[in-house]
Design brief:
By secondary structure, the protein is mainly alpha-helical. Helix content is about 65%, strand content about 0%.
Length: about 250
């Protein structure tokens, strides 16, 4: 709550029902179920309550600007946003401004209105989107983990191979590259390719580290040889100076 307050975001209590802002909740529930496809009715009712509360907080006056909206429902569930738009845009008193926004779209809108406040946001957004694009879906990842666990139990891959397939970013990246994120495209051959690619990446990384170590060792040896040469030269100069002093005394 303190973090939200620091950003000047405030939580308001759900306003009471009024005749002027009442909506057909049965129809809204039907739209939500059709578009989103809830498996749990409690979740559906929670979202319905949130949307109708935002509607009441907005009031009867149509909103045109995000800054004056007064309330907004920011979520990660894009189908819920679509359902909300389908329902509330048909109301006679419907707001010209959506009641809900996907989190990424809302963040982009806020940034566009004041880009100076967060100049690095586009780069961070791109990085986040790229990471999300490289993340397998739950179905694909579940099938992948099941198969590599089976291969390890059958001793067709080593424990080291299992951990490589399970945890390396190279394996995850190639899995997405070969299947394009589609579970139906996943097969035993996919794992063979992924494993070979991951092994090659590890070998390349190991070789790069060895080369770096050899370069550092060679550099250290060269520095040591230079230091030894300077010390030898300094000793020779010192001996020459001593000999010169002795020669001068014997004259």
């Amino acid at each position: 709550m303190k973090d939200l307050s620091a950003l000047r975001v405030y939580v308001k209590a759900r306003p009471p029902q009024t005749a002027a802002l009442a909506v057909d909740e049965a129809r809204l529930e039907a739209v939500l179920q059709r578009v989103v496809g809830y498996r749990n009715r409690d979740t559906l009712l929670h979202d319905l309550d949130a949307l109708t509360a935002i509607h009441r907080l907005r009031g009867t006056e149509a909103k045109h600007e995000l800054e004056s909206a007064g309330a907004v429902f920011v979520i990660t569930n894009t189908p819920l946003v679509q359902a909300s738009n389908q329902f509330f845009e048909t109301l006679p008193s419907g707001s010209l401004l959506p009641l809900s926004y996907p989190d990424a779209a809302f963040t982009t809108l806020v940034w566009l209105k004041n880009p100076v406040a967060a100049p690095a946001l586009p780069q961070q957004r791109i990085i986040a989107d790229c990471y999300a694009a490289l993340s397998p879906s739950d179905d694909l990842w579940r099938a992948y983990l099941t198969e590599i666990a089976k291969l390890q139990r059958e001793r067709r891959i080593t424990v080291e191979d299992y951990h490589l397939l399970r945890y390396s970013m190279e394996a995850r990246s190639l899995l997405m590259d070969r299947t394009l994120g589609e579970p139906a495209a996943f097969s035993q051959g996919t794992i063979d390719e992924v494993l070979e690619h991951a092994r090659a990446a590890v070998r390349a990384q190991t070789e790069a580290e060895l080369q770096k170590e050899r370069a550092l060792r060679q550099q250290a040896e060269e520095v040591g040889l230079e230091a030894k040469a300077r010390a030898t030269q300094a000793e020779a100069e010192k001996q020459a100076e001593i000999m010169a002093i002795k020669a001068a005394r014997t004259r």
